[in-house]
Amino acid sequence: MKLALLTINKKIDSLPLEQQRVLACKAAVDMGKRARGIVFIYPFIMFLFLWGRGVFIDHGVYLIPILIMSLLFSARRYKLSSLLLKTNVSDSDGLLKSYLHSSLASAFTLGLFAATLIFREGLSVAGIVMLLATTGMVSGAIVSMTQYRMQFFYFLWLAWFPIILVSLYIGGTQDSFGFMIAFLICAFILYFCLVGKKMSDEYWLGLLTQSKLETLTEELKRNKDDLQLIVNHKTKDLLRAKKLAEDASQTKSIFLANMSHELRTPMHGILSFAALGLKKSDSSSREKLNQYFANIDTSGQRLLSLLNNLLDLSKLETGKMEYFFKRYNLQEVLQDCLLEQQASLTAKDLQVEVLISTDKLYAAFDQQRISQVIVNLLSNAIKFSPNTSTITIELSKASLECNKHSSESAIKFRIRDEGIGIPDDELEAVFDQFIQSKKTRSGASGTGLGLAIVKDIIEEGHQGFVEAEKSDSGANIYFTLPTSQVLAKHEKHSF
Amino acid sequence: MDKYYILAADDDPLNLIILEELLATDYDLACVSSAAACIKSVKKRKPDLILMDVSMPEKNGLQACYEIKNTEGLKQIPVVMLSALASEAEIEMGIESGADSYICKPFNESDIKNAIDSLLA
């Protein structure tokens, strides 16, 4: 369906209907802006003319009804032009038609008024002045109506047609100058048609360009917003990556510093006792020298343990850690670990309290690895326990959830000390590689590998679970070891 | 002539044994295993010099040194840091805490004796 009033410009006609509607709406609003109060100028000038010339008395009976008609049409134009200002795409076409029809009617009343006056007065001064006034008023229409070219042409003809007829009549009956006037009016109409067409084309072209510009601006704004979003998103990603990289770098630096400390400490023991032994080999008793060797051995073992931890970590990371499962009694493994740590316990005068609340202490596990787990946990507890305090170890029955419907039996191993403990916000992080609790980082040494290895051995190697729990005093860590499920996963290993 | 009284603080028993072996004959040496015990002992009997490990649980050696160096009546006691923390930044932190000297582990007998003698001279 075509818009009735837009059969004017090829460029506009070739646009999609929806876009035509948008442009028509804009043109309608423009028309509303241009019309407004100007529509009363015609009847006002008519009134002034009548009043000034005193023709009310002579020809009022013919002219006053025409003036009233003109006033009514102007009032309707004014009302419609106000509505055009608020029009929208859906109703602008109908509203515009009504407005233009009123304008054409208004033009006709204007022409009728002038023709009647000229007919009554002849080509007197009043008639000539009326002709000039009509010319001026019709010229004004070029501004308010020109975008609707055809309607503007109708407007011209309707306004001038009665005057042409009267001029021809006067030319034939009274004064041949009437023919000249009729000819001049026709020439005037032709000229205005040509000017109107040019102005109309320019108007629609301008509107189209403006519309395209608005569309492009909108698109540009949308693209800018999209781009801004992408930039924001990327910036966030980069900041996150930067933070991760900085954290990793800081963790690496802390780890290297800790490693240096952990290597230097046993090295100091080895070198110092070796130097003492060399210096005092002649003067010291055999027992004393044996003590030096024992201390060298202790420091050497500590160094070896550190290297083993590093190797284990490397194996765990590459998935090359091998587990050999067999059924063992966890209590017996614990006793062996306690014996191994006896010297450290004695040095700090620590007590170990073992509480056992289950008689099912057998499970299938890799003895060497679980011993490593227990020794890691025990040495941490010893390191952070104050002298003469107590370390509590509990062995109890537990269960591990396999899925929503089933669970399997397990043994829970819990160790608690009376040391500085782990802050609540670090209960998970302490199991990460190279991470040490900030409480211990500035004080007691360590590499931050021990608990990471514990977690891997228990959770990856034995399908168990390890966690640090909140505690009012000291650290409170437990692990749960399944008694049989592990076997299914590692059935290739004998036990 | 009375021997100088030296107080050593280290949480590692082996390190304390080494210090005893190196210094016990020439100095009156007392050993404690924590920073808190060191401060307590210093207040009880003022030593001529303190040998302080840095990495100790709870209160570390830097904190203890700073506390001593900011306590009237104790601040003039020379403090020698003995630590396996050996980076430049860590040594700087030790000196900033008020330590008069910083010796990195492993050290030998002459390193520690020279440091002590120069501070007690």
Keyword list:
A: alpha+beta, Helix Hairpins, Heat Shock Protein 90, 3 domains, 5-stranded mixed β-sheet, two-stranded antiparallel sheet, 15 helices, 7 strands, rod-shaped, disordered C terminus, B: 121 residues, Rossmann fold, 5-stranded parallel β-sheet, 5 helices, 5 strands, globular
- Fraction of residues in β-strands of chain B: 15-25%
When the domains of chain A are counted, the total is: 3
Strand order in the largest sheet of chain B = 2-1-3-4-5
Let me know the number of strands of chain B.
Answer: 5
- Contiguous uncertain segments of 5+ residues of chain B: none
Category from helices, strands and their pairing of chain A: alpha+beta
Average pLDDT of chain A, rounded to a whole number, is 81
Report the β-strand fraction of chain A as a percent range. Answer: 5-15%
Percent of residues of chain A in helical segments? 55-70%
Rg of Cα set of chain A: 52 Å
Report the C-alpha radius of gyration of chain B, rounded. Answer: 13 Å
CATH topology of chain B: Rossmann fold
Shape of chain B: globular
**In angstroms, what separates the terminal alpha carbons of chain B?**
14 Å
**Strands of chain A, total number:** 7
Query: End-to-end span of chain A in angstroms?
Result: 88 Å
Order of helices and strands of chain A: HHHHHHHHHEHHEEHEEHHEEH
Helix- and strand-based class of chain B? alpha/beta
Overview of this protein structure:
By secondary structure, chain A is of the alpha+beta class. Chain A has 3 domains: 10-224, no CATH class; 245-315, Helix Hairpins (Orthogonal Bundle), CATH 1.10.287; 321-489, Heat Shock Protein 90. Chain A has helices at residues 10-13, 17-35, 41-53, 55-85, 92-121, 125-145, 149-173, 177-280, 286-318, 330-340, 342-347, 367-384, 438-441, 450-462, 485-489; strands at 326-329, 351-356, 362-365, 390-401, 407-416, 465-468, 476-482. In chain A, the strands form 2 sheets. A 5-stranded mixed beta sheet of chain A has the order 2-4-5-7-6. A two-stranded antiparallel ribbon of chain A has the order 1-3. In chain A, helix 3 runs antiparallel to helix 4 (55-85) and helix 4 (55-85) runs antiparallel to helix 5. The longest helix of chain A is centred in the middle third of the chain and has 104 residues, at 177-280. The radius of gyration of chain A is 52 Å and the shape is rod-shaped. The two termini of chain A are 88 Å apart. Residues 486-495 of chain A have low confidence and may be disordered. Chain B has 121 residues and is of the alpha/beta class. Chain B has a single domain (5-120), classed as Response regulator (Rossmann fold, 3-Layer(aba) Sandwich). Helix content of chain B is 42%, strand content 20%. Chain B contains 5 helices and 5 strands. Chain B has helices at residues 13-23, 35-44, 61-69, 88-96, 109-120, and strands spanning 5-9, 28-32, 49-53, 79-83, 101-104. Chain B has a 5-stranded parallel beta sheet, with helices on both faces. The longest helix of chain B is centred in the C-terminal third of the chain and has 12 residues, at 109-120. Classes of the chains: A alpha+beta (495), B alpha/beta (121).
